[in-house]
């Protein structure tokens, strides 16, 4: 491998390689004109079932399971590998061109919400669920929510990228981020040895934020064989918590929404009604 010497000033003159080379760029803004579709429900979600996308669909399905009819939503698929996030309509909702993005059209003035953690807080406050109103419980939940925001880039953009997606394997990078991810798993394991959920005795938006990333890792669903590589079975308290959340019916539904990969029976590209889970998965559509 040829040693790289950085130039005095970096310039973008070639693709950076790797699985996402076609969509990475050093500038913001739209690349093409494309309006976003709008469905019949007050909440319009534009997303993909990555861990960040799953956070929000799990939250919406949990709210619906509690009987909040105002949480009904249309979920539209944003194919990031095709550059849908750079369409003009999407950029109007999220100038950062990242999924998920939500429009709340329930009031006189539509409200845009972007960044998954912000969406979780917005929905929790709107419906009065999954975020305590009293201290210190509220601070504990928010602390773990923002722990995920600060920690997950080391798991995804760091470890996941260099372990699974980079065009070459770099020992230094993989070792560096493996060490950090294992430290993070130990942080979670120690916390979950003390409490049933991250915020305490009650399931909250902190769990919904952390579970798609670290629960997915614990359950062997992330980055090929990375679970074995990182010995995730050793984190027994994380394993208990991950399996308990995985068994929730709303979580099972939330994982299916805007999913465009994996087993066809678990892919619901768009969700507009609760009945879509029974009739609109990719295996059902292929059989028509």
UniProtKB/TrEMBL annotation:
Stored PROSITE patterns: GST_CTER, GST_NTER
Pfam families: GST_C_2 (PF13410), GST_N_2 (PF13409)
Record's protein name: Glutathione-dependent disulfide-bond oxidoreductase
Native species: Rhizobium loti (Mesorhizobium loti)
């Amino acid at each position: 491998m040829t040693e790289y010497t950085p130039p005095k000033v970096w310039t973008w003159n070639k693709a950076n390689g790797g699985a996402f080379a076609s969509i990475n760029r050093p500038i913001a803004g739209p690349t093409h004109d494309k309006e976003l579709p709008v469905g019949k429900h007050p909440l319009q979600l534009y997303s993909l079932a990555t861990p960040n996308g799953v956070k929000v669909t799990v939250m919406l399905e949990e709210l619906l399971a509690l009987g909040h009819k105002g949480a009904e939503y249309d979920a539209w698929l944003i194919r990031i590998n095709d550059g849908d996030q750079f369409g003009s309509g999407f950029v109007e909702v999220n100038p950062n061109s990242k999924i998920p993005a939500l429009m709340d059209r329930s009031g006189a003035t539509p409200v845009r919400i972007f960044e998954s953690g912000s969406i979780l807080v917005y929905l929790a406050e709107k419906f009065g669920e999954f975020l305590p109103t009293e201290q210190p419980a509220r601070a504990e939940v928010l602390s773990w929510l923002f722990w995920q925001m600060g920690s997950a880039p080391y798991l995804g953009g760091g470890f996941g990228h260099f372990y699974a997606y980079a065009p070459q394997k770099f020992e230094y990078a993989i070792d560096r981020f493996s060490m950090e991810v294992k430290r993070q798993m130990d942080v979670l394991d120690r916390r979950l040895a003390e409490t049933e959920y991250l915020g305490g005795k009650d399931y909250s938006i902190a769990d919904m934020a952390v579970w798609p990333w670290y629960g997915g890792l614990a359950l062997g669903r992330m980055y090929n064989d990375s679970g074995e590589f990182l010995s995730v079975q050793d984190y027994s308290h994380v394993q208990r918590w991950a399996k308990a959340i995985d068994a929730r019916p709303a979580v099972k539904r939330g994982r299916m929404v805007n999913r465009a990969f994996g087993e066809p029976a678990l892919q619901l590209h768009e969700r507009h009604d609760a009945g879509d889970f029974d009739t609109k998965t990719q295996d059902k559509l292929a059989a028509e």
